[in-house]
Recover the amino acids of this structure.
């Protein structure tokens, strides 16, 4: 009869439950990997929460102001939402610009913009006369200035309007009917004095030329007369120095100025104040 042999004891090893625990951890890891692969990450929300955590835990800010005591806030109350995660737009005010070198915002004046629009309309209507050098159109603040050169307008020492210039003024009047605003017609001369029977001074000559232009535009151009007033400046407002013939030719001109609402209101105010300051003389009883 065979004798039973005694098997040696196996060496000490890990407990049996460790294998089950390891399997469980592996399954949990796979489960969380699956959750992570199905999740969506909102970058803006992450940055917003990270900023709130910085404030909540009292992280030192860039200004390093030691007088401010770090204060904690409730992140959950501020950022928690039970809804399905969707891309979140952070409330920010941004300025879009094409030139990052500008330090200040460009603020446009509506009155100036309106004057530029009027200038474009008049240039389009009078482009032939501008191209021929008879007219020059520009803006100053909210005013539009049509500058009539002496070339082809008035003969020397005369305020008579020739037939060719008559057509130009009629066309200017038609163009001015398309824009709004009060109109000032201003006459200018050079500094060479004039002394004739008809024009004893440059003041009379500049006033006569301005009156002739205003009359023609209101009569043939059908501009409402109430819109127009005339001014005479003689040689007191030169564009160029009068020491050269070219400069004197530039100074002999008639300007048609279309006022904006701001200048028109100021002009009306000055006229009212001028009327109220006049004292009416009273007759004394005999």
């Amino acid at each position: 009869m065979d004798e039973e042999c005694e098997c040696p004891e196996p060496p000490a090893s890990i407990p049996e439950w460790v294998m089950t625990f390891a399997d469980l951890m592996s399954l949990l890891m796979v489960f969380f990997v699956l959750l992570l692969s199905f999740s969506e990450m909102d970058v803006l929300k992450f940055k917003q929460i990270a900023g709130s955590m910085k404030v909540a835990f009292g992280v030192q800010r860039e200004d390093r102001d030691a007088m401010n005591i770090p204060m904690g806030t409730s992140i959950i109350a501020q950022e928690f939402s039970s809804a399905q995660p969707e891309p979140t737009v952070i409330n920010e005010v941004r300025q879009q610009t094409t030139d990052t070198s500008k330090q200040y915002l460009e603020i446009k004046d509506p009155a100036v913009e309106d004057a530029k629009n009027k200038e474009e309309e008049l240039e389009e209507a009078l482009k032939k006369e501008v191209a021929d050098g008879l007219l020059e159109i520009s803006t100053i603040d909210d005013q539009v200035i049509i500058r009539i050169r002496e070339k082809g307008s008035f003969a020397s020492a005369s305020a008579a309007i020739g037939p060719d210039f008559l057509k130009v003024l009629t066309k200017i009047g038609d163009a001015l009917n398309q824009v709004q605003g009060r109109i000032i017609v201003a006459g200018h001369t050079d500094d060479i004095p004039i002394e004739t029977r008809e024009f004893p001074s440059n003041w009379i000559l500049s006033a006569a030329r301005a009156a002739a232009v205003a009359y023609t535009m209101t009569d043939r151009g059908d501009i409402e007369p109430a819109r127009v007033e005339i001014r005479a400046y003689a040689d007191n407002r030169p564009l160029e120095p009068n020491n050269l013939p070219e400069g004197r030719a530039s100074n002999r001109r008639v300007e048609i100025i279309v006022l904006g609402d701001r200048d028109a209101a100021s002009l009306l105010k000055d006229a009212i104040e001028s009327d109220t300051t006049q004292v009416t003389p009273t007759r004394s009883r005999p």
User: Anything to note?
Assistant: The chain has two domains: 17-61+70-79, 110-274. Residues 274-286 have pLDDT under 50 and may be disordered. The beta strands are 135-140, 143-149, 183-188, 228-232, 253-258. The chain has nine helices and five strands.
